[in-house]
Amino acid sequence: MQTILVFALLGLGSGAVIAAVALGVVLSWRGSGSFNLAAGSSVMVAGYMFWAFRTGFFHFKLGTWPAVIATLAFMVVYAVLIELLAVRPLRAASPLAKLVASLGVLLLTQALVQVIFGTSPLASPSVLPDSVVVVGGVPVPVAQLILAGGVSFLAAVLWCIYRFTRFGVATRASSENEVAAVLAGLDPNSISVANSILANLTAGAVGIAAASIVGISATTIPLLIVQALAAALFARFTSFGIACAAGMAIGVGESLIFYASTQSWFPSHKGVALSGVQQLVVFVLIVVALWWRGSSLPQRGELRERSLPRVPKQDQLARRMLPIVAACAIALVLLPSEFRQAVVTGLVGTVLCLSFIVIMGYVGQLSVVQLALAGIAGFGVARMSSVYGIGFPLGPLIAVAVALVVGVVVGVSALRVRGVTLVVVTLAAAVAIEKFVFANPNWGGGATGVTVQQPTLFGIKFGSDAGFRGLDGSLPSPVFGLCALAVTAALYAFVANLRRGELGRRMLAVRSNERAAAAAGVNVRALKVCAFAISSILAGVAGVLFAYDFGTVSASMFDVMTALSVIASVYVLGVTVVQGAVLAGFGMVGAVVPLILQKWVLPRDRVGLYVQLLIGAGLLVQLRFYPDGILIASATKRERRRAERLQLRATSAAQPMSEQRAVA
Amino acid sequence: MTAPALVAREITVRYGGVRAVSNVTLEVPEGKIIGLIGPNGAGKTTLVDAITGFVPCDGRVEIAGEDVTRLKPHARARRGLGRTWQAVELFDDLSVAENVAVAIGTPSPWATIKELFVKPTLEKARVGEALDSVGIGHLFDAMPTELSEGQRKLVGIARAFAGSPRVVCLDEPAAGLDTTETHELGMQLRGLTSGGTSMLLIDHDIGFVFGACDHVVVVEFGTVIAEGPPHEIYANERVIEAYLGSSAIPTEDPGARR
Ligand SMILES: Nc1ncnc2c1ncn2[C@@H]1O[C@H](COP(=O)(O)OP(=O)(O)O)[C@@H](O)[C@H]1O
Ligand SMILES: [Mg+2]
Fold it and tell me: Chains A, B: CB contacts under 8 A, how many?
């Protein structure tokens, strides 16, 4: 009993951090209507800055209090910077665009922090006492209590500010009806920046205090956003008190589950306790929260809404595809093995990105779970071949079918939620699948991963170990590359064709206006499930190809940060056109573009970070200047120029000079 | 005698405690245009929402004799019930032709699958016909965002009629059109009935409604206060008092929510 209490109290530490991130999420939503995926990153930034001030990283060393003040001052600057770069330019954008912008901030800060401070976690000088007091026989860690008390106090302060000050009333007014607030003379920009400063100061204080408890890590802290979103959902993105309490409860719960996993009754495999139960619980909590607190977020009266990126028609498909396919085929045969491998990875990445084009570009549903579906298929193929001896073609078929089933289940359970809420559900689902399935030694890959047997049919090898080894005679075989190319080209044509046909038209109709689509006879629910199914199949095929391509699968290949990076890069390039999938695929880590960068431009071990940095920054630039995506922006410009030329020619042919001058 | 194209029996819609529509019964015979008029907030839009399945209601809705009360909006649409909105709701990502094409096809799963592998074609003839019927054939390739408000309205109407529906509910189609355009629209609507399509026509422009309709229903505070042929309604004292006389004749709905 006592031990349980101790674990519960220990959980208060991370619970307080989750609560603080949840408060940040609520503040962003109420202040600017943005759904802030980067709320956890603020805690991380504060932790790193405090560490740097205290330890003399910037060549000067500060005492505890000066360092605290310097860090908080930095957080104000950081808040204003983010506001100017990622929030203000998108005031009038759709909620989805705002969310994607916060994704850009998340990727950018996470990469930047690691580039500056290195990738290994740091031990921060502690601010809170690390003593333990014994109350009634129970040892109570003081730091955790202070942290929890401090965050509760901050929540109370925020509540008071919102309740009693004019600023609070203004924020509430503007979050309920921005139009009316503007008419009443309130400036949404100042309200938004003030809320952002409040959020970052809260995050800053907690980042400083918690650094010694949870450790400073760029990989774990930003992802606390998942738990924080669960807490914020319980609070309906409005109540500070509930967000705070729910956040702490999640922290305590996770700690208790950890305690339970040390017990003999806890399910285990070969002496290792079942992993990922915490993440599974958070996912279930989110589903419960949606069911219990209502499936939609409180509506905000927005000024105006810019719609999703345009979806241009796909013309002259074959003519545009053939040269690229031919170039890839030649490259696969001629290039040395390293590049061959990169081309294959790029092709497989393209298939993965195509699944995002369908679900995100055509139907407007941002689903994070696609990479996890690819992982399910990848692990499926690997385990079927290595454990059950089921090889090609049955293994891949079953694997894709499993991914399809899981994808459709996610799609059906997410039918009632749309837009930004879907992101929360699928994000939590992706994390749960990663930790509970992939990292789980029982049915996933555990710490080491699973190897895959290469495909053979009628005794003929056509995997990466096939007989023909290219010009340099080394692995991987171009034969597998050519097979992957054929699959990719077919699926590429399929997704492009989808845009031109009846089904794609209906998808876009649903994306534009669900009500009107229903009135035109479109079964909106069936259509969404159908889109999820198509997208899941694409993801599943990508997963199978990944497994064959790399020869082994491991949890880190399909983790949620990778998924977010892929989504971001597809979005930057053009989430509504198939060409965007190709470029994003070839830009994935392990594919051609990063390989070239790491060979000639960047330090070898940092390529992933720099690519992420580029994607994050690119996202902010793209959302600001090319809301439709970079590819579409350039295509539009070209189209317009051509249209102008045509018109010019038409008018000059049709009209005599004098008339033309009159028209001009 | 064949069943009427549309029957709405004892429809009641509640928003919280408020009854926006109470116990309204109306019937749209085949090939006829029925007018629905009433002051702002009378519950006209709400009634159309109930008939087309967008708000839950008590009562019973029949299309050509078939009970559709339990069906979802898209299923009612497939049984031949079209509608337009007070504020136009087009698919802004699709061209005008594609907007109309969405309403035309009710594809079989098999045809859809086949289409994914061969180059699909738009049913140009039928789309063009639908656009021509309201006189906007020249907008075939335009994008909705490039159009004027009046043209957008017409695209919405063309889309509602494109799938050869039995009956179409038109929510203030003439709002935003000028006098000649309104007159033209009236003629076009009459033309569309010759194909057997019936209509429930809501508008504020009394002249337009009385000119186009065979029969007029007047609602106030969610209940029917009068109905009959236009000339009778024109002379009905209660109607004059409730609606026509009160604030002259309103031509546009300032409280348009959708
Ligand atoms: N979604 C809604 N929630 C609550 N009340 C509504 C809603 N829609 C309409 N109402 C109310 O129902 C009544 C009828 O509205 P409406 O059908 O739009 O009238 P009309 O179209 O005749 O102008 C009005 O009093 C309006 O305020
Ligand atoms: Mg109305």
Answer: 94
